[in-house]
């Protein structure tokens, strides 16, 4: 959400200092993409709160859950994770 607000502020600032209007906030495409972005942010927040918001201190966990978390953290290969991130890096470089 902060990114969407920052974009709006930047567009307003550019609009103040330009001779011709540079505002993209009036276009339908910008408004639709902004709505989709905010909805996706809200869904991601709900997902993370639902799946990772449990209380590990107050509730008991089985050994199977503990070993699953341990294996993800300590036995995952950084090289595989890095290779999975290459398409994302490509998208970031294009912008």
Describe the structure in your own words:
- The chain is mainly α and 95 residues long.
- 73% of the residues lie in helices and 0% in strands.
- It has five helices and no strands.
- The chain has helices at 2-17, 28-52, 63-74, 78-84, 86-94.
- The radius of gyration is 21 Å and the shape is elongated.
What is the residue-mean pLDDT, rounded to a whole number?
A: 77
What fraction, in percent, of the residue positions are helical?
over 70%
Radius of gyration: 21 Å
Shape: elongated
| Strand/helix succession | HHHHH
How large is the count of helical segments?
A: 5
SS strand fraction: under 5%
Model regions low in confidence, pLDDT < 50 over at least 5 residues: none
Can you summarize the main beta sheet? Answer: none
> How many beta-strand segments?
0
What structural class results from the helix and strand content? mainly alpha
Distance from first to last alpha carbon? 19 Å
Strands, helices and their partners?
Elements: H1 2-17, H2 28-52, H3 63-74, H4 78-84, H5 86-94
Which descriptors would you attach to this protein?
mainly alpha; 5 helices
Outline:
The protein is mostly helical and 95 residues long.
């Amino acid at each position: 959400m902060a990114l969407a607000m920052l974009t709006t502020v930047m567009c307003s600032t550019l609009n103040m200092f330009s001779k011709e209007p540079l505002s993209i906030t009036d276009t339908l495409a910008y408004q639709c993409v902004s709505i989709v972005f905010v909805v996706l942010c809200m869904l991601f927040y709900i997902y993370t709160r639902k799946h990772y918001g449990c209380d590990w201190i107050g509730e008991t966990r089985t050994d199977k859950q503990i070993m699953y978390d341990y294996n993800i953290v300590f036995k995952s290969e950084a090289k595989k994770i890095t290779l999975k991130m290459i398409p994302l890096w490509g998208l970031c470089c294009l912008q």
